[in-house]
Specification:
single chain; alpha/beta; Rossmann fold; 7 strands; binds nicotinamide-adenine-dinucleotide
Length: 268
């Protein structure tokens, strides 16, 4: 069996969050596998840096600044996609921040902002990609969810968990509506993949790293680049019968049901 089924030559990918972390790793992976890529991020310096780093591959790489919680900005982004590329074969819906707050205290403005980032923004990206892919009769979408899509985490994750739960139902509904017309929709559920916010949390609370490690049967935190193989699989024909799937990317955390904590829980 050859590796042609993983080849993305001639395909166009849109990846959000492409300045950093898993979005950057996903964009890099699909470009390395042959795709032209529209890199999307709110961080102009970062997304342009990713474009420069990928230039040596010789693909068409375009960096665009877009806040994926801003619907008007998303409209403009997809106009640029049409202008620069004229099609889309893969959407990696990665960007979008949460915010922490106790359920009894968190403001409704904060809750609305998290839902806007993680649910409305991600859905609007899916809608734009889906319309184009349905016309083409083919496409693949990956939404990034979380351990918090499946399990409660405690520790102030109420708005994040509510939103990430919605991301998996969005994924299943879209898969159910679109798969027979050639558009596959799946979710990747990461857990404890190192990023700058987690580094800060470890600096501020030395216990948190050990807490996370207790939930990771694999024995270590994940690195963003470890999403690369899964990204190529999901973007390519190698995953042609996978749709509506929720794929853990978490060192065994969900299998162990290990992500959460509650007030008063013993430390070890
Ligand atoms: N790291 C983890 O363990 C983990 C676990 C579960 C889910 N996630 C989710 O995965 C996604 C990516 O996380 P990461 O760890 O790669 O983070 P990261 O901080 O390394 O990268 C996130 C990127 O998204 C960009 N971004 C943030 N808000 C944006 C917006 N509104 N519009 C456009 N770009 C925006 C940032 O500038 C940054 O480049 C996030 O939605 C996060 O909640 C991460």
């Amino acid at each position: 069996m050859g590796l042609e089924m993983f080849d993305l030559t001639g395909r166009v990918a849109v990846v959000s969050g492409a300045a950093s972390g898993m979005g950057k790793a996903m964009a890099t992976a699909v470009a390395e596998a042959g795709a032209d890529v529209l890199l999307v991020d709110i961080d102009q310096g970062g997304v342009e840096r990713t474009a420069r780093e990928l230039a040596y591959l010789g693909r068409k790489i375009v960096a665009e600044v877009c806040d994926v919680s801003d619907l008007a900005a998303i409209d403009q982004l997809w106009e640029k996609l049409d202008k620069h590329f004229g099609r889309v074969d893969f959407l990696g819906n990665v960007a979008g921040n949460g915010a922490l707050g106790k359920p009894e205290e968190i403001s409704m403005d904060t809750v609305k902002q998290v839902v806007q980032n993680l649910v409305i923004g991600r859905f609007y990206m899916c809608q734009h990609a889906g319309k184009r892919m349905l016309k083409q009769g083919k496409g693949s979408i990956v939404n990034i969810g979380s351990l918090a899509s499946m399990n409660a985490l405690g520790r102030g994750h109420i708005a994040y968990s509510m939103s990430m739960g919605a991301v998996i139902q969005m994924t299943r509904e879209l898969s159910t509506e679109w798969s027979s017309r050639g558009v596959r929709v799946n979710a990747i559920l990461p857990g404890q993949i190192m990023n700058p916010q987690m580094e800060k949390r470890i600096e501020n609370d030395p216990d948190i790293e050990n807490f996370w490690l207790r939930g990771l049967p694999i024995g270590r935190l994940g690195q963003p680049d470890e999403i690369k193989g899964l990204s190529v699989l999901m973007a390519s024909d190698a995953s042609s019968f996978i749709t509506g799937a929720l794929i853990p990317f978490d060192g065994g955390n969900l299998a162990k049901n290990a992500g959460g904590s509650h007030p008063g829980m013993p430390k070890s």
